[in-house]
Write a structure and sequence with these properties.
- Helix content is 22%, strand content 40%.
- The radius of gyration is 15 Å and the shape is globular.
């Protein structure tokens, strides 16, 4: 069974991101609990809809590990998965010293990880990202971690990201 997310109620976002949420047992547990405090859905800007799911922590506002899913309408500055990855990398460098490792690249997607040091309090020191370009929208799956991530969790998140596809 795949979790299906149609992020962005805006008609312009006709693509739909699907992925198998069961590949991350902690994420599945949060979703199965139906604890609304662990999820923050922000569609105040229909061109950039953000869904944050706290996987470790007290709430979507107080977390140490979270899955962020973003649906974005392409624009002149960012209109591809690679362009979005480059923008995210530039933004991270303004926060703290960061290194980036590309893990996978396909025609319409890019997966990479970020490790950062010297970050402001509360800024995630580790992240995994998969940007995917659709016909009319861009999607991002991002795992943000403020402390440490075990190798088992890292592999589970990468498997979840690899399962992501657009319909």
């Amino acid at each position: 069974m795949f979790t299906s997310l149609l992020l962005g109620a805006a008609p312009a976002l006709a693509d739909k991101l699907v992925f198998d949420h069961r590949l991350s047992p902690p994420l599945k547990a949060v979703l199965d609990s139906a604890d609304a405090a662990m999820i923050d859905y922000n569609n105040s800007n229909p061109r950039n809809v953000v869904d944050l799911i706290a996987v470790r922590g007290k709430s979507a506002q107080d977390w140490s590990e979270a899955l962020v899913i973003i649906a974005r309408t392409p624009d002149r500055k960012v209109n591809s998965a690679g362009g979005w990855a480059a923008e995210l990398q530039r933004e991270a460098q303004t926060k703290c010293k960061s290194s980036f490792t590309e893990l996978a690249r396909e025609e319409k997607s890019i997966t990479y990880e970020r490790r950062s040091v010297g970050c402001p309090t509360g800024y995630p020191v580790f992240a995994l990202y998969r940007a995917i370009a659709g016909k009319q929208s861009l999607f991002l799956l991002a795992v943000l971690v403020k402390d440490d991530l075990s190798e088992t969790s890292r592999q589970q998140w990468l498997a979840l990201m690899s399962s992501g596809r657009l319909e």
